Amino acid sequence: MSTVYLNGQFIPEEEAKVSVFDRGFLFGDSVYEVVPYYQGVGFRLQEHIDRLAHSLRAVSIKNAQDWQAIMDKLVALNGGGNLSVYLQVTRGSAGKRSHAYGDELEPTIFACCTDIKDVWQAGVDEVVPLKAIVTEDLRWHRCDIKSTCLLPNILVLQQAKDEGVQEALFSRDGKLTEGSACNLFLVKRGVIYTPKRSSEILGGITRELILELADQHGIQYQEIDIDYERLLAADEVWVSSSTRGVIPIVEIDGQQIGEGNKGPVWMRMFTLFSGFQRALMTGSK
Ligand code: PDD
């Protein structure tokens, strides 16, 4: 049985109850974060907290909590191992259903932990490459907000599963944006390419770190528009997220990407990431 956080209290999960009039439940009027902790240490914690602040500001929900204190304590109460923290903030409940809301609402704050694998220390051999499909991006135009309105993401992932693959990539107006819950990268002749940061994609914390590491280690990268032809002609395609790390995609819409295997630039990036994480764990970062 795990301990969760709800509105100021750390309680057993089965005691956590939220009103049926909560706007998160009725309207998806809420935002969230997913923060990995390895051996009790938050991975790029401040960056996650900054992105939560951005999401809250963008939808005018109050942001008056010590997020780090809540997450650190929750992780400790759940054993302090390798865990991801899910943190959701809804606009709250007015005790009735009404699209309009007033200033008096108090946000509902919920957080829980899930076990995760330490992808970075597991080693390259443990990473299983994925196959993907490309689907139409039917989401709204504020994908920079980490909103809990995830129906389009859920439906395309299910479509991928129904077609026997593991991931769905979104395409909007002929340009690839990102994956169902991950950012997108490709490699061509040793250069990394990724869609520009905009309101059409989530500003992924892992994405930022990949670009930072590329910068520091002299790997060239460009933020550009990626169309379908460019995607399929890539030597390597990767997706990235906090919980899954950086994973190669070796087949898209039934067509092999590059050599159909983990590529050398991915291998290098994975190694750089593992090094970064080791430094974080030993306190030298
Ligand atoms: N999702 N794009 C989308 C649409 C995402 O949902 C996510 C992460 C990312 C990657 O962001 P980051 O590197 O900060 O995790 C990109 C989380 C993990 C989720 O919804 O569970």
Automatic annotation (TrEMBL):
GO molecular function: 4-amino-4-deoxychorismate lyase activity
Enzyme class: lyase
Cofactor(s) required for function per UniProt: pyridoxal 5'-phosphate
Cited InterPro entries: Aminotrans_IV, Aminotrans_IV_CS, Aminotransferase-like, BCAT-like_C, BCAT-like_N, Class-IV_PLP-Dep_Aminotrnsfr
Family: Belongs to the class-IV pyridoxal-phosphate-dependent aminotransferase family.
Catalysis: reaction(s): 4-amino-4-deoxychorismate = 4-aminobenzoate + pyruvate + H(+)
GO biological process: amino acid biosynthetic process; folic acid biosynthetic process
EC number: 4.1.3.38
Keywords: Folate biosynthesis, Pyridoxal phosphate
Annotated protein name in UniProt: Aminodeoxychorismate lyase
Keyword Metal-binding applies: no
Pathway: Cofactor biosynthesis; tetrahydrofolate biosynthesis; 4-aminobenzoate from chorismate: step 2/2
Function summary: Involved in the biosynthesis of p-aminobenzoate (PABA), a precursor of tetrahydrofolate. Converts 4-amino-4-deoxychorismate into 4-aminobenzoate (PABA) and pyruvate.
Species annotation: Neptuniibacter caesariensis
